[in-house]
Amino acid sequence: MIVQFGECRLQLVQGDITRQDVDAIANAANSALAGGGGVDGAIHRAAGPLLKQQTAARYPDGCPTGSAVATDGGNLSAKFVFHAVGPVWGGGDQGEPSQLAGAYRRCLELAVEHNCESIAIPAISTGVYGYPMDLAAQTTLTTVRDFLVSHQNPKRVNVVLFDGGAFGAFARVLESIIG
Ligand code: ADP
User: Fold this and answer.
1) What is the sign of the dihedral through the CA atoms of 151, 152, 154 and 157?
2) End-to-end alpha-carbon separation of the chain, Å?
3) Which end of the chain has the least Cβ crowding within 10 Å, N or C?
4) What interhelical angle do 133-151 and 164-178 show, nearest 10?
5) Where are the domains of the chain?
6) What is the pLDDT of residues 28-50, one digit of tens each?
């Protein structure tokens, strides 16, 4: 599913984010930048040890929830990885939506700062962090839409959903917000 916002294209893709042909990939990291399972594990496995070397050297204090930090892409075809820290779901009244939005906004700002035309982003916080998929889709897609409308950059954003359930939830929400 593809939606255009001015010169910018937002596309929903089902698959593995490490296989995306883009300038930058966003990672769903933890605030210690310690590495983990899920999409974080897949990205570190595909990229190799450079990412951990750079996060340890550049960000010894980690990254706060609701923000993101950059490394190179190592063995990935992407030039950069933006390690974003989403919130752990705690029922929705602990600031989770604004923290999730902040994590995505920082990734998009980093893409612009690093002159990336394209970025792939996963469904941050929807795995072990427990964020309900439909609520995550709402915050994620409105945040990306608002950023693209106001900045007209990056030119291409691929939202990469790992399975059919996540893809369906994001597709329904995308239809409703452009409706
Ligand atoms: P979090 O700790 O932020 O919840 P997870 O990695 O546990 O992060 O899950 C985030 C989302 O990433 C989940 O929807 C999960 O299905 C998805 N995911 C896991 N592996 C991949 C991958 N290789 N590519 C894209 N998405 C993935």
Assistant:
1) positive
2) 14
3) C
4) 50
5) 2-178
6) 999 999 988 999 999 999 999 99
pTM (global) more than 0.90: yes
CATH number of 2-178: 3.40.220.10
Measured CA to CA, the distance from residue 140 to residue 62 in angstroms comes to: 23
Amino acid at 4: Q
- Residues 175 and 155: their CA atoms lie apart, in Å, by 20
- The residue whose CB lies within 8 Å of the most ligand 1 atoms, and thus the one to mutate among 33, 45, 139, 162, is 162
The question of whether 40 is a catalytic residue gets the answer yes
Q: What is the pLDDT of residues 63-78, one digit of tens each?
A: 999 999 999 999 999 9
Separation of 142 CA from ligand 1 center, angstroms?
20
Which residue has a Cα nearest atom 7 of ligand 1?
127
The count of other CB atoms within 10 Å of the CB of residue 61 is 8
- What are 109's two structure tokens? 């700002």
Is 120 within 8 Å of 20 (Cβ atoms)? yes
